[in-house]
Recover the amino acids of this structure.
């Protein structure tokens, strides 16, 4: 396991727990934290013993209080603040393909979006700014009843980031998303639950146990490769233009999985009335769904 400075990780009973760990700063988000979180998701995806990921915050006050504002007025002026190659060309134009021009929160949420394991956010306290938007590509958000949320960007003179303009309306509807983003107000866990952002509320002391129990319920009897493919199929089809796109993907995925050993084991174990022991592994037996989505003809050339 990597030696992280701003997060902590733990693997226990098939669950990878990622804890944001800057408790003295209310777990405020930094570039280092972004890179460490991305590395941790890489680690979780590569480990076939990991069945699910839980993301939570250190301490009782905050999940993540948003971006670290210690740089003051230059907090969001990345060209001035960041000590690295600049995307600004000599003529003053911006090289938008330069990595330094990319939003850090978006780099993280895209990595979570591409995760091969179910991801549960256990929101233990304040989740403001990127502290809220980083949870949107997680499959479920469970919160302590004293947690608070806020899409506060308009109150900081910026705009929603971390690809939240794509995720948030799909999760809660456009009107609710606009309400929270226009006002920039911080709202309670109960409002987040009523608005569809949060799945369930728990006492602070029971949140992690509830998240772990839920993770086991999701994964204990299902094939890991099937879960990984299902996660990508459902998330990506949220942006499809027509159900025919889902039909094409379903057809390819069913064909691919039907030829693998998991499908045989799933049927035989059911007929024999015993727990299934799925032999296929996410690390080695999952198809490249990126190519399936990007190249409509790819799946017809692929072989299981």
């Amino acid at each position: 396991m990597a030696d992280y400075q701003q997060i902590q990780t733990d693997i226990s009973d098939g669950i990878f727990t990622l804890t944001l760990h800057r408790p003295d700063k209310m777990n405020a988000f930094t570039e280092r934290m972004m890179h460490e979180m991305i590395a941790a998701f890489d680690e979780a995806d590569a480990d076939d013993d990991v069945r699910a990921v839980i993301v939570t915050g250190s301490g009782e006050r905050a999940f993540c209080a948003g971006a670290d504002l210690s740089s003051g007025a230059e907090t969001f002026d990345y060209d001035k603040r960041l000590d690295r190659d600049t995307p600004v060309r000599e003529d003053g134009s911006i090289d938008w393909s330069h990595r330094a021009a990319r939003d850090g929160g978006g780099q993280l949420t895209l990595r979570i979006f591409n995760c091969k394991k179910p991801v549960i956010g256990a929101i233990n306290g304040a989740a403001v700014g990127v502290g809220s938007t980083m949870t949107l590509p997680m499959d479920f958000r469970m919160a302590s009843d004293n947690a608070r949320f806020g899409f506060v960007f308009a109150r900081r003179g910026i705009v929603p980031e971390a690809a939240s303009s794509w995720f948030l309306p799909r999760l809660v509807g456009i009107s609710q998303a606009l309400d929270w983003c226009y006002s920039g107000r911080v709202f309670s866990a109960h409002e987040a639950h009523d608005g569809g952002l949060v799945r369930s509320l728990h006492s602070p002391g029971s949140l992690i146990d509830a998240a772990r129990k839920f993770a086991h319920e999701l994964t204990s009897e299902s094939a890991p490769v099937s879960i990984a493919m299902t996660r990508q199929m459902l998330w990506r089809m949220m942006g499809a233009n027509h159900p025919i796109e889902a039909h094409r993907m379903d057809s390819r995925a069913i064909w691919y999985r039907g030829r693998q050993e998991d499908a045989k084991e799933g049927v035989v174990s059911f007929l024999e009335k015993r727990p299934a022991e799925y032999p296929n592994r996410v690390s080695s037996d999952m198809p490249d769904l990126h190519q399936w989505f990007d190249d409509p003809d790819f799946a017809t050339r692929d072989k299981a």
The chain has two domains: 7-219, 224-301. The radius of gyration is 20 Å.
